[in-house]
Design goal:
103 residues; 0% strand; 78% helix; mainly alpha
Length: 103
């Protein structure tokens, strides 16, 4: 592994850890559904970063875990990569709907 790749992985882990820490702090202080969805998206994103790092370092066997169906489609990876964006999108739609249709 080259130094550049190692620094990239460390920065992803470090910044993700900081964001996840603040997301957990915010979660205990908010009950707003939009913020909860953003927090969940952040937690899932960090889980994907950690899992990918473990696979890259060879600690976890990636192929058996990624290819759940056995058909070569990495279902677990597709979910981990796309779920944060889905949660962010739902959070944004919640805020848009709240502002467009105030109760």
């Amino acid at each position: 592994m080259e130094l550049g790749e190692f620094i990239l992985i460390l920065s992803k882990l470090g910044m993700g850890a900081i964001a996840t820490f603040f997301a957990i702090l915010l979660w205990s202080r908010t009950r707003d559904i939009a913020w909860v969805l953003v927090i969940i998206g952040t937690l899932i994103h960090y889980a994907e970063v950690v899992f990918s790092t473990l696979v890259d370092f060879g600690i976890l066997a990636g192929e058996e875990l990624w290819n759940v169906t056995g058909s070569g489609i990495p279902v677990f990876k597709i979910l981990l990569v796309n779920l944060p964006v889905l949660f962010y999108s739902i959070a944004f739609l919640t805020v848009i709907a709240r502002r467009r249709f105030p109760s």
